[in-house]
Description:
The protein is mostly helical. 56% of the residues lie in helices and 0% in strands.
Amino acid sequence: MLDSPSCTSCKTNEESLEHLLFFCKTTAFVTDFLWKEVLSWLAILKKERVDFSLIDVLFGKFDIDEDFIVINHILLPAKFYI
């Protein structure tokens, strides 16, 4: 168990999923690049723009009619990588 709730990467904010996946300044380069690449790839495949909100990344994307299973399976390893 952690002695302190501060982020293990940046040491300034409380560590949480939201912080690590979107707001941490230390992991920001990786997360920004990763999310942009994933969204760009999905836009090419679907021939339409797909956006992820914080809730979509944390819990999955279910507000689309088709391919939501594929998109959610792409989100899982992306989150694991971060």
